[in-house]
């Protein structure tokens, strides 16, 4: 299966390009749509009863790995992550497929098998889908979940004093880019793939028992991009030494194995960030687009240590990466 130079969430259209277009649209407002795209949320919520809402999202992209089965698993895990980020339990999913006419259908079968296995792990029923012929392979899911309208998460409601916890290490796009040209070793590549195929169901099942104020998943707009969206009314102070990175990711950045998505993120979000450390390679990792990245949790300081301990008990590679403070000149300070 042929890789795309902008595979995975690295293929996202830049945030800066999207913002102006979306603001120009005339959107009909319905009272039963609780959450739309006004706040750059991870998914939409539609009210069904006073207590129950349905959560919908969609994600698809070109392959970032050559193995079609693994590609299917990564794409499915990435799509389902938006439901967990909103506090929803997955219910159903539909396949979205673009596939070249005349291509080996065995490749498509393996992609769909990978996606189906992840949906089964998430206890989510595949209910169909839509497929078209296209010049390049693309795959993903349209997903639907249910949520308690009295207890769902938003991506922009942290509180001052919160602790920020990230549940996966960073650097997947840098590693995928480097591996595609033979500059990243097999072991580091396999660790990155293992991170991407892992569902965010496990950290979600843990964090919902604690006083979490804001939640999002880290995907194509990078840690600094998604954290910028979270810090609408506050600022964040990150401790760069506490942020876990995938093995080889910082070396890939130091070797200038940049991605187009990473440079788009830098252009869009660098104005929000004050780097108090002189570490260009680390900057690149922090702007790196993540595919099926971890959850970023803004949790009350009183619960942070216990939540982190419970995550680690589940073999989740989580870490405390910083704190939320009252609003300052910049949205994010990296120390």
UniProtKB/TrEMBL annotation:
A cellular component annotation (GO) from this entry: cytoplasm
Q: Which domain of life is it from?
A: Bacteria
**One Gene Ontology molecular-function label:** selenide, water dikinase activity
Q: Does the keyword RNA-binding apply?
A: no
Annotated InterPro entries: PurM-like_C_dom, PurM-like_C_sf, PurM-like_N, PurM-like_N_sf, SPS/SelD
For biological process, the GO terms are:
selenocysteine biosynthetic process
Residues of the PurM-like N-terminal domain: 41-147
Gene3D superfamilies in the cross-refs: PurM-like C-terminal domain (3.90.650.10), PurM-like, N-terminal domain (3.30.1330.10)
What name does this protein carry? Selenophosphate synthase
Q: Give residue ranges for domain PurM-like C-terminal.
A: 160-334
The protein's organism comes out as: Peptoniphilus asaccharolyticus DSM 20463
**Which SUPFAM superfamilies does this entry report, sorted A to Z?**
PurM C-terminal domain-like, PurM N-terminal domain-like
Q: Which Pfam family, an example, fits this chain?
A: AIRS_C
Record keywords: ATP-binding, Kinase, Nucleotide-binding, Selenium, Transferase
